[in-house]
């Protein structure tokens, strides 16, 4: 079955964002932010709330044994799969020799997959890019993918750009290296039995690849326009959507208030609603004011309720 997913994004796809996204779509595939394996081992909060629905845990690391230990810790929680970050080009991952650095070491990634699979019956995935630095040929990419698949990788999420570890910031790495969707399609043709999901620069879940690829993943587009998640369930089921956006926003705010979440965490996922529509600027300013006031009671006022309706119609 073709999958629709929201990309793992540091500081964005946290628990509260996932709860909101799940309210908008029952069928979208959600990922955590990248969590470093050592942080998981040392007790960071990896609880999955029932309201999040199915979630995949993305892990960052480079040592097979440590990654396996992190999976063992996570097995007590309701994740449906584990994803290895082999594509992020940030300074943080360079210092830890993981993320996009792993593209240079296919045997290490294969060893990580095998070690992680020893700790779980859940699928182990890899999210990566077309290449890194000067190692960006099709031959290198295919060797990397073949190594992952032979180790038992369940899905490849392929960002349709290469990465530069030096000279470009993470933001520039999302825009400057050219998109090469044709190379993702060629990789799928090279490995026809592999589950390959496409990612990178995509602005809509509607796409021409349902008969070719295994899925499509959007990142910043969802953060900027979360209402596009309303298109996912109709694409999956073939039936008209029934989610009321304004009602979902109200229920989300009420849930987060009751759960004691900080407004600085749970309001930002709402910022993109209605972007470009009348009322959107006032909506963002309203949320910003509430965050500045450090109060979680912003969903109850009449003015706030009117703003919800103004950006969700």
Describe the structure.
The chain has 313 residues and is α/β, with parallel strands linked by helices. It folds into 2 domains: 3-237, TIM Barrel (Alpha-Beta Barrel), CATH 3.20.20; 245-312, no CATH class. Helices cover 40% and strands 14% of the residues. It contains 14 helices and 8 strands. The chain has helices at residues 15-24, 37-41, 64-74, 91-96, 106-117, 138-150, 170-173, 181-190, 220-224, 232-237, 245-259, 263-266, 280-293, 302-312, and strands at 3-6, 30-36, 55-60, 79-86, 124-129, 155-159, 196-199, 215-218. β5, α6 (138-150) and β6 form a beta-alpha-beta unit. α1 (15-24) packs antiparallel against α11 and α3 (64-74) packs parallel to α5 (106-117). Residues 295-303 have low confidence and may be disordered.
Strand ordering within the main sheet: 1-8-7-6-5-4-3-2
Count of discrete alpha- or pi-helical segments spanning 4 or more residues: 14
Order of helices and strands: EHEHEHEHHEHEHHEEHHHHHH
Shape: globular
The low-confidence runs, each spanning 5 or more residues with pLDDT under 50, are: 295-303
Average pLDDT confidence is 91
Output the CATH homologous superfamily of the largest domain. Answer: Aldolase class I
Which CATH class of the largest domain is shown? Answer: Alpha Beta
- Biggest sheet descriptor: 8 strands, parallel
Helix content: 40-55%
